[in-house]
Structure formats: C-alpha cells, structure tokens
Amino acid sequence: MKTKELRQKLIVDFGKFIQDDSKLEVLEGVFDAINNEENSSVVSESHYVTVAEEREKYFSGQSESSSWEEVEQRLKAKYGF
Fold first, then answer.
1. Residue 36, φ and ψ in degrees, nearest 5
2. Which of 8, 10, 20, 37 is the most exposed place for a label (fewest CB within 10 A)?
3. Which DSSP letter does residue 61 get?
4. What is the rounded average pLDDT of the residues 8-17?
5. 24-63 as b/e, with b when 16 or more CB fall inside 10 Å?
6. CB count, 10 Å around CB of 17?
7. CA distance 22 to 27
8. Sign of the alpha-carbon torsion through 29, 42, 58, 79
9. CA atoms of 38 and 40, how far apart (whole Å)
10. What is the pTM of this model?
11. What single-letter DSSP state applies at residue 63?
C-alpha cells in the first residue's frame, strides 16, 4: 500500500476508533508507547551481564554443555518422557 493510501486508510480507521471510548483508550496507550523515549526493560542489567559472562565462558571452552539429544536422554531416564 502506498503512503498516501495508507494515510487515508488510517484517517478513516482513527475516525472509527474515536467513536468508541474504550478503543480510544487503547489507541492512547499505543501512542504513549510509541512516544515513550525511555526504553525500560523488565530484565535487569545484571542479568544481561551474567548472560554475557556465561556466553563468553561457553565460547572459550570454560563451561560444559550438553547437546539437545543428551538432555533429552537424561529427561527420559529421569522422568520417563
């Protein structure tokens, strides 16, 4: 869809939203999310650091890992599935 056509479609759609207060509140939430410059994450910075450290250990060979097949076998042996 071309920009001009998309703009016209959005104008029509917004007209429909404005007639319903509950949809208008949802639309306000969308605009707030778009305009919110603060990019807050539910994951703390310390978790990102831990993941980066563990990833580095994995790639340097300092940590042990298992293939999916090995994990699957252990689960089958332990839990029967």
1. -70, 110
2. 37
3. T
4. 82
5. eeeeeeeeeeeeeeeeeeeeeeeeeeeeeeeeeeeeeeee
6. 15
7. 9
8. negative
9. 6
10. 0.40
11. S
Q: What CA–CA distance (Å, rounded) separates 2 from 47?
A: 42
For the segment 52-81, the average pLDDT, to the nearest whole number, is 92
Name the DSSP letter for residue 33.
Answer: H
Q: Which two tokens stand for residue 12?
A: 């029509």
Amino acid found at 77: A
Q: Which residue has the higher pLDDT, 39 or 21?
A: 21
- Spatial separation of the C-alpha atoms in residues 12 and 45, rounded to whole Å: 42
First to last CA, the chain: 49
